[in-house]
Amino acid sequence: MNIAVHSPALIIAIPLLGAFLTPLIGKLGRRVRDAFVLIILILTSIIGIILAQQVYSEGIIKYTFGAKIPSLTSPSTISIPVRIIFEIDGMSIFMAMISLLLAFFAVLYSTSFIKDENGSDRYYTLLLLLLVGMLGMELTGDMFNFFVFIEIASISASALIAFSVDRGESLEAAIKYLAISSIGALFLLFAIGLLYGQYDALNMAMIANSLSNTYIDKIALILLIGSLAMKSGIAPMHMWMPDAYGEAPSSVTFAIIAATQASLYGLIRVCFTIYGKAFDMQAIAGVLVALAFASIFIGATMTLIQSSLTRAIAYAAVAEMGYILLGIGTALFLGVEGHGVTALKGGIFHIFNDALDMGLLFLAAGSIIYATKERDMNNLGGLARRMRFTTIFFLIGLLAASGMPPMNGFASKILIYESTYALNPILAIIAILSSILMLAIFVRIFYSVFLGPENSNLKDIKEVPKPMLISMACISLIIVLFGIFPSLVVNSIVNPAVHALSNVDAYIGSILGGV
């Protein structure tokens, strides 16, 4: 079998097979199971690298399950692609790389963080299924398959959030996440049904080519944006995120960040690829910019009043989603040229940076909970004396999330500020001031947890195990490298993603032109 040719199928098949084999391998012992799961993720990542090389060298890759795509020019075949199709372009593979990276380090961190022998087999099975859902969302070219994969990710994520069954807060957060996800999924399915009823098509390229700016098209667009914004944790539909992020095990939160961004990818794909050619998106862009500032404001102000360390970081994650949406909304408003391209680069670059920065903060918070069994910042203090490496990693994370140079967050936020200033200088000033406010809040949190007087009950704590430290160290290294060499990152992986979103005709032509 030619691995390169079938890499789009293998990148889904390998973790799916691993998910169902994990409980069986677990019978051989914890170490064997952990090694097996890591090998599965390494193999999947290798397939992802092969697929990325294909995309960057050959352009859009299309893969049809079961049969070839029918040609529009052939009278002997039907003219509408009805088969399951994966269509991988620069944006798809960009998101897939984020999902693979976060899943790998989540599992590496979990090998020490998760101690429950009775439930750990199920834990790793669910993590692999979550990865399958994320990758499927990012690679599929079919709207209904996108719905199926988003449901796989949502169900897996809700079960993972409830993994700590001894904590009522975790169960409550999982139920809330599942309820909100179900509502969002119903809206999404209804929108897909409207488009299918109008155009007899589920393929994204076919729908994009067929849109005729009807009233039903507009209703479907509103439903799609509402459902995907809800699943992305964008204010005022963010109510699930502080609970889910704050109460789930930190390794789970690290993985769910990628799932949340996969939903955001769906929103971006709808706005740029499916509707971007047939619709004037300026009104939608204005709504997205408004939602972005709502997310930034609510996230920053609610972070200020939290006493739980993980909930404080979770509200900061809401604010960071606002910055991504600000870049995307500005690009839609200005168009994909000039400052609009800059905005799109900043927004897409910040997707990766946000995953790394907030993920590192959650892993550091998980290390603190692992060592102290405490989430309340009022019961912490002086940890820098006992947990030096975790202190350094948390400091790197907070500087990056606040957009301080030379961290990666500064590189992406400066692009967003520049383009937003072209849209409206006042908006850029508000965005900058909000980042400064977040820095002040994070400094207060850092002082409360790591500096200040040492809690007398925490004098016997020690640093966390090496796999947890290695995970945080690797993420920290990537953050610093992205900050020092931003142009290398932008040129190698961000620009192809921007080109993919701005060149809708190529996306449509790759499918409707046949093989």
Would you give an account of this structure?
This protein is mainly α and 515 residues long. The protein is 74% helix and 2% strand. The chain has helices spanning 7-25, 30-58, 90-113, 120-139, 143-161, 168-199, 204-210, 215-231, 241-247, 250-274, 282-304, 309-334, 339-372, 388-401, 408-423, 425-450, 466-484, 486-502, 504-512; strands spanning 61-64, 85-88. Strands 1-2 form a two-stranded antiparallel ribbon. Helix 3 runs antiparallel to helix 17 and helix 10 (250-274) packs antiparallel against helix 13. The model is unreliable at 72-81 (pLDDT under 50).
Main sheet: strand order:
1-2
Class derived from helix and strand content:
mainly alpha
Range of strand content: under 5%
Q: What pattern of helices and strands is seen along the backbone? A: HHEEHHHHHHHHHHHHHHHHH
Low-confidence spans: 72-81
Annotation, overall tally of beta strands: 2
User: What best-fitting shape do the alpha-carbon axes yield?
Assistant: globular
How would you state the average pLDDT, rounded? 91
Distance between the termini: 20 Å
Helix tally equals 19
As a whole number of angstroms, the C-alpha radius of gyration is 22 Å
Question: Main beta sheet, described?
Answer: 2 strands, antiparallel
Percent of residues in helices: over 70%
